Every structure is written in C-alpha cells, then in structure tokens.
Amino acid sequence: MRVALEVAQVRSAEQRAMSRLPTGALMQRAAAGLAAACADLLGDVYGRRVVVAVGSGDNGGDALFAGARLAARGAQVLALSLSDSVHAGGVAALRATGGRLEPYAGGSAQLVGSGGKAPDVVLDGVVGIGGTGGLRPTAAELVAAWEGLDPRPLVVAVDLPSGIDADTGRSDGACVHADLTVSFGVLKPGLLIAPGALAAGTVHLVDIGLEQLPEPGGRDALTVVTLADVAGLLPRPGTESDKYSRGVVGLLTGSPRYPGAGLLSTAGARCGLAGMVRHVGDGDLGHEIALRFPDVVPGSPTEPGRVQCWVVGSGGGDEPPAVPFDRLLADDVPVLVDADGLRHLPDPADRPEGARLLLTPHAGELARLLGMERAAVEADRLHTVRAAADRLQATVMLKGATSVVAEPDGTSYVASAVAPAWLATAGSGDVLSGIAGALLASATAREQAGVIDRSPGLGRQAIAAAIVHAAAARLAGPGVVAARLAESVPAAVASLIA
After folding, report:
1. Which residues contact 28 (CB under 8 A, 6 or more apart)?
2. What is the number of other CB atoms lying within 10 angstroms of the CB of residue 170?
3. What CATH fold (topology level) applies to the domain 2-213?
4. Is there a contact between 432 and 469 (Cβ–Cβ < 8 Å)?
5. Domain ranges in the chain?
6. Which one, 10, 31, 304, 433, has least CB within 10 Å?
7. Helix (H, G, I), strand (E, B) or coil at 358
8. pLDDT of residue 453
9. Using CA atoms, how far apart are residues 469 and 245, in angstroms rounded to an integer?
10. Predicted confidence (pLDDT) per residue in 282-306, tens digit
C-alpha cells in the first residue's frame, strides 16, 4: 500500500527535504525521473521529436530540465512557453543541449514544425499541483491543437495533468488527458479519484527522497490499495477450515418488486470468499434462489440464523428490512447497508455502542443522505465521503469509477486503478454488495477464532471488494451485464490470490 497526500502535506514534505539538500536537488531528481519515464515510453530517444508545454513555476522547470536531458540523448526538443516568466535555469539547460524555446503563437503550426510531422511526445508542464480551475484559454488552445494532430502524440503529464485539482481530482473546465503521468515523491489524491484518475492515464511514481511521510492506513493520508495488496486481504482456507470457520454471510436482499437484486447479491456472495451464504427470504424469491443456488441456505425473518456479516437493502423496496436493524446490530457483526436499506438507516444515537456499519451508496444516494446536490458530491468525492463517515458514524464506500472509502476516524482508502466503464450497468452494485459481505464475513470469522486481530474499521475489506468487483468486470469484458459479472467473480478471486 502507498499513501496519497494533499497539496499542503506535499509542500510540507518538500520543504523538509529542501532544508537538508542542495538547492535545486529535488527538481533535478524529478527531471531525471521524468526524462527516464519518457525514454521508456519512446523506446529510442535519438531523433524523436519532443514538445514541452511550459507554464510558469517549478512544474515548468521540471519539464524543461527533463527536456534538456532528452535533448542530450539526441531528441529534437522544442519548448513552447505559455508565460512570460518561465524557469530560467531550465531554459538555460535546454538551450545548452540544443533544445529551443519559443512563445506559443497559437494553432498547431509550431507543433508540427517545418517538416509537417507531429511530435512523438508532448510533456505537459503547464500547471503544477498548486493550480486551481480549468486551463486558461491559451493553454486550452495548445492542448486542443495537439489533440487534433494525426497521429496524436503521446502525452506525459508532469506530476499532475494540468487543469486537474490535485486534492480532489476535480476539473472545472478544459484539462490535459495524459497517457502517462509522472508523479514526484508521493501520489496525489487527484490522480486516483475521478475525473482526475481518468485524465491521468498510467501513473508512474518517481522517488525524489521525501521523508517522514504518513504510513498507509493512517488518518493523515489517503491509503492507496493495489491489486497486489488485495492478495494479502483475501482469505486462504487451511486444511482445518470448515464452512463455518470460513464465515457465513447473511443476505436480506431483494423484494417482490426487485427480485433480481436478491439473486444478484446472492450470486456475488457465492464467490468463494466465505464458507456459506444464507439468504433470508420467503415466497417466490426464496423459491427462486433455492432453485438457482442449491448451496445457499435459507433463513426466515423469525429465525434468520447466525452469520458473520449481514448484507441489507439491495432491492429491498420501500419497506424496512424484514429483520430490524436493532436485531442485526445486536449480533456484533458487520452490517453492510446498500441501496434501499440506506433510507431506513438508524440514527447513530439509536445504535449499540461499537456497531459496525458499512454503507455503500452511489453519489445520488449519498447526496440524499447528506442533503446535498449530487453534483457537489461528485465534485469532491474524497472530502464528502470523509464528512459522511464522520456524520453517519459508519464506514462509507462511495461507489463509482474510482470508489473511495472512509472510516469515522478519518482513515480513507482508494483503489490504485480505475474500474472498467462497463461496470456502469444495472445490478452491478448488487453483485458488489454480495462480494463485500462475503469478504467481511470471512474476516469476522477469523477475528472470532483469534486468527487475526479485530480490525478497527471495515475500510480495507470494502476497498478490496471493489477491486475484486472491477477485476471480475475486466474478465467478463465489454458489454458485460450483472449476471455475467457475478459469474466472473470466482475467477477474479482466483487470479488475485494466485
């Protein structure tokens, strides 16, 4: 796991480093890493055409020094300045290695040059992590110019795509869409949260020697969970395991109006992460689940049975859960509340002390819970979900292309990769609730057996479930529907554990 820090924290870490290093050392380290990443992207540097888009400030300096390094290796480097004030040392280094600097005059003529050939790569050094708002008109014109070239050059963002807010991932207007973002020292939340994550492309982190950074899982940073990290969070049964010791997940999902949600959440829970799935329901839905999934154990509202996690609300309709929340929370096991169940959520004051709740809203549902506009939630997903976890006194996972999880104590998590766009399909959230419930049930069973310590929160399991969910979508491929997504979950689990 890694951490992502907001701008104020990054600045503080940089100041500590600069106080013990020679002047300019951080910039040279950043430029060296940036040039190396560009060289890896290009393969052969000699003779390649490189355009550097340069704004004022240190971000432009990083780009200029990197351009100088590429020019020294035989690249034809042209820097186009968007400001009257650019980094003087970077300009001198570029010119010393044969590169050129010109003010950007508008249009695309400078990009293609006299030979009429598009550049191989463009370095976006327009705005750094301190920038706010979308691109200014001249910068937006330059970006549109390179986007319109045929072939379109590869675009490498310097630390952060220009026009993206480093703390939130927000874009208030035009922004750069990069193929590769080379980030310096530590990741920034804006690279990991949509829409910034969608604009960043592949993210490569360069170590520039920042020290005293917060630890992953701490309250002072966003913890970034990778595919490799998930392998350590998924359970591996031993030879002594049985279906009970592996965890039982209970589902209070589906309704006569939305029976499909009950089927899909059950299908997601049957992913191999827990030893048993119990569905509490009767009538036509209970009969259908028994026919489709003969391994699922039935339960009734009067005798729901013992479980290590409850999943409540997916497709529940207007009525509150058949088993009341006070009964579910009295079991001292995690209770995942999704979709319709969020409308019946008990107030924090009415819950038992230490109740373990995981809420899984999408942006519209979280907006209703908080009395906000959906657009306001989408504009600042990280800080909104942190505020929601504190206010609702529950772990909250805000679902989306980049799901973000926050604990009431301020701990927060995000996945390192953007989920496939085809996950935006009816029923996929129901599958996710089943996956998350199975993972929580397994973890709780191991806690009860003393195999692992009781987790202070549910965030790691929640984000791991989101990563499993996205991995299943990648296996299922474009055009996936929720039923086929659920069928791909066991293979996704197997691929992540391997």
Report:
1. 65
2. 23
3. Rossmann fold (3.40.50)
4. yes
5. 2-213, 229-497
6. 304
7. strand
8. 87
9. 24
10. 789 999 999 999 999 999 888 888 9
CA quadruple 494, 495, 496, 498: dihedral sign = positive
Residue spans of beta strands (DSSP E) within 47-179: 49-54, 76-81, 100-103, 121-125, 154-158
Cα 395 to Cα 309: distance, rounded to the nearest angstrom: 14
CATH topology agreement for domains 2-213 and 229-497: no
Inter-CA distances, 175 with 78, 126, 273, 381, 392, Å: 21, 10, 41, 19, 34
Residue type, 141: E
CATH topology of domain 229-497: UDP-N-acetylmuramoyl-L-alanine:D-glutamate ligase (3.40.1190)
Residue 295 has which token pair? 């391994």
Cα torsion through 147, 153, 157, 161, rounded to 10: 10
Letter for the amino acid at 273? Answer: L
User: How crowded is residue 410: how many other Cβ atoms within 10 Å of its Cβ?
Assistant: 13
Q: What share of the chain is helix, strand, coil (3-state, %, to 5)?
A: 40, 15, 45
Tokens of 476: 């299922």
pLDDT(267) > 90: yes
Range of lowest pLDDT (55-59, 162-166, 201-205, 246-250): 55-59
Helix (H) or strand (E) holding 51: strand 49-54
Structure tokens at 82: 């968007």
Strand partners, 398: 404
Q: Which of 64-73, 381-390, 450-459 has the lowest mean pLDDT?
A: 450-459
Return the number of other C-beta atoms located less than 10 Å from residue 493's C-beta: 22
Peptide bond into 151 cis (omega under 30): yes
Reduce the DSSP state of residue 227 to 3 states and report it. helix
Reduced to 3 states (helix: H, G, I; strand: E, B; else coil), residue 283 is helix
Asked whether residue 132 carries a pLDDT value surpassing 90, the answer given is no
What is the dihedral angle through the alpha carbons of 302, 255, 462, 229, rounded to the nearest 10 degrees?
A: 110
